[in-house]
Amino acid sequence: MERREFIPFLGSKGSGKSSLIKALFPQLEVDYSEPRFYRDYFVGEGRYVRELSGSEETIRFLLPAMSKWRVSKAVVVLDLSKKESLSWAVGTMPLLGWEYLLVGNKADLPELEVKVEDVRSLAERRGAKLFVVSALTGEGTEVLRRVLVGEIPLEEVPKPPAPPRVERVPAVAIRRDYLPSPLSAP
To answer: Is the separation of the CB atoms in 17 and 34 below 8 Å?
Structure first.
């Protein structure tokens, strides 16, 4: 009997784990509610995506069992629009001895609280590969999917492009002194 290989998807509640799983594997019937502990989706060839609860307590509760899971890489999903998502990843990643793929999700949103540079720094510190994606638009998901199913080796994945540097030019302040004048004459 062949042992199952699991690809755990971790991230704080609301980070977009379920939406990302659906974007990566559109054939799956994804449950968008937060799992109590975890939920498995069969993706083929003995591989399962295992969506874990975003609760840190649940992660700590599952730690003894996690050591028995056959995991080659785990996906940590960060919501780029919420600063707490980065804090969650920083606190949770050291608990597990897995190879990580760090995924910055919701890159399509106009207001991002988490800078890609901060996520890149975390990825470098943890030895993780960084992917910046949008589960909603599908941007960046194809390369991630191909890595997860073993179609392309992780070493061949290019780094995501750095955001354009904005040159800050100091503005010249225009100073004007005004002499108050009465609004009406007596």
So the answer is: no
Q: Alpha-carbon distance 181 to 67, whole Å? A: 79
Which residue's entry shows tokens 């704080």? Answer: 12
| pTM: predicted TM-score of the whole model, two decimal places | 0.81
> What is the domain count for the chain?
1
Check the CA dihedral 137-139-140-142 and report its sign. positive
9 domain-assigned: yes
Q: List, in order, residues 6 or more apart from 43 with CB less than 8 Å away.
A: 7, 25, 28, 49, 148, 149
Residue among 56, 61, 65, 121 nearest 85 (CA): 56
| Furthest CA-CA distance within the chain | 102
User: Whose CA is closest to 123, among 160, 72, 70, 149?
Assistant: 160
Q: What is the pLDDT of residues 111-167, one digit of tens each?
A: 899 998 999 999 998 889 999 999 999 999 999 999 998 888 877 776 666 555 545
- Percentages of the chain per state (helix, strand, coil), in multiples of 5: 30, 20, 50
Q: Please give the angle made by the CA atoms of 176, 179 and 184, to the nearest 5 degrees.
A: 135
Domain assignment present for residue 176? The answer is no
